[in-house]
Structures are given as C-alpha cells and as structure tokens.
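Handout, tutorial session.
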Amino acid sequence: MTTQTTASETPTAASGKSAGLIGLPPKTGLPLALGGSILTIISTFLAWTWTSAFPGKLTIYGYPGGLQVLVLIGGALATLFCLARYGVKGLGWLVPAGADAAIKFATLATFATSWYTVLAISVDLGGLVNLEPGGYLVAIASLAALLGALALPFERPEPDPIDPDDTGWELFKHQARYKWETVKAVFASGTPRRVGKLSSFVEILIIVAVMAIGLTVFTYGIGTEYDELFIGFMITAGFGFAALNKSGLVAQASQITARHQNITICGAFVAAAMFPFTQTDDQYATIGVYILIFATVALGLNIVVGLAGLLDLGYVAFLGVGAYAAALVSGSPSSPFDVHFPFWAAVIVGALASLVFGVLIGAPTLRLRGDYLAIVTLGFGEIFRITVNNLDGTSGPDLTNGSNGISSIPNLNILGFDFGIEHTIAGFTIGRFANYFFLMLLITAVVVLVFRRSGDSRIGRAWVAIREDETAALAMGINGFRVKLIAFALGAALAGLAGTVQAHVTYTVTPEQYLFAGVIPPNSAFLLAAVVLGGMGTISGPLVGAALLFLIPNKLQFLGDYQLLAFGLALILLMRFRPEGMIPNRRRQLEFHEEAEAPTVLTKAGA
C-alpha cells in the first residue's frame, strides 16, 4: 500500500502571515519600502549622468526629465500605498483591496524602470563611470524599496502531500509547482470593497477623471520621442496598472462606470476627440487615425470571433474589398471607372461590396466548423490578394492596376470641408490626419453602437449560444446557419466601412496591404491577435488590443527583424498568464479561472 506524506524537500512553512518572500524581519519590510520609495523620489531631482549624449535631459539638478519622470511617478505611487498601509488618515480609499500587493507592484515598476535606465546609460555611454550620484542613489533606493516590499508578510499556500515513491523528476515538478504557487501568493490581493452609492454628480466626476488619466497616459505614450523612453513607459505603465489593479482601484472604477455605461462610452469618445488638440503637429495624429482604422476592423472581427465564435483567418480581405470598392468610385485617375461618387455613396458602395463578399463566402462555407472554417477563410484572404494582384490588364481584366494598385485617391470633401488641408478650430491648427481622425472616430462610434445593440439583441443571444455550444443551440431551435451568416455578413460590412476611409487616408490601395501576417498591421493575424489580446466579446477589449498592437510595433522599429519575435513572446506570456485577455467579459473569465466568484448578473452577451 502506498502512503502519502510531505517530503522533507518541500517547504513546510505554516500558512498565515508569518514571513515575507525574502529573509528580512517582517517589521522592517514596510519602513524599508517607504524609505526606499522616498529616496527614489529624491533621486529624480538629481543628475543621473554627466553628459547629454544620453537622451532625456538627465544631467539637470532639480528638474526631472525623460525617464526620471517615470521613476518619479512610480516612486510616488509606491509612497502613497505605503502611507495608506500605515493607516494615514485620508489615504484608505487608495487600497480598498489591501496595500501589500499594490506596494510590491509599485516598487517593482520603480525598480525595473530605474535599473533599465542605469543599465542603458552604462551600455550606451561605455560603463558605470558615466553615472552621476543620482544614478547610483536611484539604483540603491529602488532596490531597497523592492526588497522591503518583498519582505512584507503574506499568506503562504499549504504544500500538497507527495508520494514517497515519486521519481526525482516528479519531485522536482512538485517543488516547482509549490514555488510558483508561493510566488502567486506573494502578489495576491484581497477582494476590493464595493463602492457605496454616491451622488450621480460625484460618480460622473470620477468617470471624467478616469478618462482624463487615460487620455494623458495615451498621449504621453504615443509622444515618446526616443526608444529608451518608450520602453521605460511600457515598464512603468504595465507594472503601475498592475499595482492599481491589485489595490482595488480599477475594480471600484469599473463598478462606477458600469452604473453609467452610456456616460462612460460618451466620455471615452470625447476624451479621444481631445487627442488632436494635445498635439503641436500632425505627426502623432497619423498614428491615431491608423489605430482607429485598425481598432474598428478588430471590433467588426469581434462580432465574428468574439460573439459568434467563428474563427476567421482571412478577415483583412473584407477591409481590402471596401477599400478597393471605394477607391474605384472616388475619382482616382488609376480607376477604370470615370466616376467620382460623394463620400456617403462611396461608403455605401464599400460596405455593400464587403457585405456581398461576406455572404458569397459565408453561404457555402459556414456549414463547416472549427479548423475547417479557419482554413477556408484563410484561403479566401489569399485568393483576394492574388486576384487583385492579377487584375492588371495582362493576367486578367484591367480593373485594379495589379501590384501598382489604385493610386492618387483624392482627399474627401464633405459639405465643403476639405479633409486634405489644415483648418483652425478654436485657435488650434488641425492637419490632414487630424481631420481623418475625427471622421474615423465618428465611424468607430457607429461600429460600437452596432456592436452593442446587436450583442444585446435576440440575434446577439443566438450568437453567444452558437459560440458556447452549437449542437445545444441547434437543439433549442436556433437556425445556426442563418445566425452565423448574419454575423459573417455584418462583420464584413463593418470592415468595408473602415476600408472606405483607409483608401482616402493612404492615397493608394495595393494588394500588399492585405496580407495574412506581417510586421505592419492591419493584417489578419494582427486583427485576430487584437481581439484575443484585448478580450473576446467585449467592446473595449479589441479597441485597447488594437491600439497596443499598432502602437508598440510602430515604436519598436529599432528591433528590426526581431519585432515579430518580441511580439510572439509577448503573446505567449499573455496567453499563459491571462488567457481571457486584458479586458475579458465575466463569462470567459470564469471559464479560465473556475475558482473566481460567480457573477450575480450576466449581460446578454456575457459581458
């Protein structure tokens, strides 16, 4: 008979808040974290290097610049959490879920950004000799703060009993699993307190503050001027958001926004509309309009993948159909049709063309499921690209000008408003790309409205039923083929709608813009990644995922051929540690985390 006991190699620390992760006295952890965070803040007002060869103005005393600003923010956040942990009056609202995990992530953000900066200075300039006293101080202080945070006591998990007959490999796996559970327990937080009922005015002010913070963070990130600053921004933003999430502030903000969904959505679009007014030129408005195009197409794909559960690997072709259809009727000299439709007519042509192609492709293929449907849609995407490449008058009819594409697409002119020239609004100069940014923002709002209304409708509930269990849905009387065809056609039409604007923004439409995979989005692989990364079945998830997947490759061009490698590694890590996406709906969150508390109410779309 085999008996089970706890092996001597397995840690046997009793559960309970008796000790921290590292061997420091628990009572020294919080003072060390607080002192280190305060010294980190002080160090940002000192010079970190003696030469201006490293960007960011790190040679000035008394005025933080560049990466010092990010370290200052991380240090201030960690200091506030430490003071709240001490019970300082007026700061308890910062940690509704407890302060320990928030302190650990905040100090980790400060440490990672500080040491990245110090190492970057040393590597770029040729050694530690290029550091000023502020550089040494920030390295030591941020390390001390992190060690103090890791010394805070936490609830250790109980070790599982093991079989004494286990092999060495099985013992190793058991110990590694226990150590991983211990690490997760180090950064675990409590359940945040529910927000009491506040006056509507106060709750709306909180929503406005959240939107303002989001606009500030996005504007800072998109305006980072050099590679080191963007990497530091990503480190601080990632760990900083984790700290706010562990403190419970994100959960409480979500509770407030859930009470005022319409106001939140309107506030988000107002905040986005303010973005061009924060820029001094049209440089970053260019990135903004491409992000909106990418995000709108991803939201259309979210209907197909997130709501209906249909894996479409050729979705970018519908964007191309809309772009080509609009380009052919918008007065381009490369078009064989000598017509120049107004914008509203071109939009209808592009959306209808994509819708027709969606029906034609979906009708014979949507009786397939899973991998077979994915292969068919992948084939459609490649067939579209090859076909428009061959319609050059040599290999086929002269329709799309082949690989040269349709060029010189004129700028839009709606009711006398020329999108190709600068305009002055309230004293602000709005350039060409900012004009298209506002137009694309309006189209994104239309797509969000369509997604939201369709998700809450009878057809939306049928999509969710098909996604969860198609056999059970068919047994309940749902016409699976018709429901899936509607999702396919609607998603295609929304992609075509975005394609009509893309054609005018880029001036030229070519087959190479609509690949299955590539370094530069949008392509089918990036679109699907945006939906999965952001959170399938939600509105905000694909929008955030698309913004990140467009912005990050644009800022990491210095990686060259390693961009896709870094992108792939990031996706692997995210799918390993957060498979439900960054902003998941509650239903999918419970699928991946069964131990989580069940929701009391689920919306019709499961969000």
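The second record follows below. Compare its token runs with those of the first.
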Amino acid sequence: MAIRVPQEDRRGAVYAPCAFRGAPAGPQPSGISEKYLFEDPECLRVLCRIDDGVEDGVLRRHEVKDGSGEIIGTIERHPAKGRKKHPSWRIRQPGHSEVVGRSDGDLIERGVVGLIEFGVSFYESGTLGDQRVAKPKKPRMIHWNDEAGTRVMSSQGNEHKVKAAWLDRRLAFAFALLGDN
C-alpha cells in the first residue's frame, strides 16, 4: 500500500511510490491508534502520522506529525451546512493561510443536474431499451483554496493534485489517508 506520484520516464508516466502505509515496528502505547505513512517499504522511517481525530462539537480535528513528533499541521472535517450535501475540510499549516476544501454547487444545483441526467437516462432507456450500461458514480471533486481564493490543491477520489509549492505534501498525503468521509 503506497501513495504514488506521477513521474516521467522513458516509457511515459510512471506512478512511483513515495509514501508507504503500514504500522511501526515494536511496542505501541496502549489506547493510541494512529495512521502512519513511511518513507520506505520496510516501514522503518516515519514520514508522518495522523491521529484518529478529536471531536470538537460538530467538527473532527486531526493532528498530523512528522517522524519526530513535531506538528506539521491539522486537518479538520466540518459537517455539511444548509443546502450543502457534503462536509467541508480545512488544512492548517503553521505560517500559512488556512486552506478550505469544498465541492462546487449546492443541493439545488446538483439536484437540477441530477434531474437532467435522469431525464436523459430515461429517454435513452426508452429508445435503446436496456442495452445501456450503468455508469459508476464519480467521487466528488474537492477544490482546496487559500484565504485569497487561490487554488492550492484539488482532490477527486484517490487523485490529489497539489498546485501550491508551499503546501507540505505530507498534509495532502494525510488527507488521502483519511479519505473524504
């Protein structure tokens, strides 16, 4: 299990592993359950670790630490509000502005799009019969912007594209490990 990044090779794009998921060797303190990413496939050098999160009212906060236990930043999950269907996310990295991750559109906009897609599907089923194949549902696109509105990262399913050079990649890796749930 690894997080991979695209690298150009003479054969084309290669998705080389850059962080490995695993558990540290040796005894662990009881009652502490953390997710770990390692620099090596043998899981000897900790790249970062993510705690299970602390519930703070309606939000959940995860601390991300480096191999020596220093805090790299935090990731927060905020529940959906109002007409929003999905939660929003916040990444805080010391010395930088907060990064907010959310989907475009609200329930009404997505409902209209869904209604149009249903109508097209219904029409196609009437003209084509049941020869059509059900399309798998695409994971939602999350746009991550800083306080100035500049795109810092985008995420969709297992793909995360970091656009800002200042964002610590380990925070993006940590979000990938947590998942959008």
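Points raised in discussion: The CA atoms of residues 158 and 176 lie 7 Å apart.
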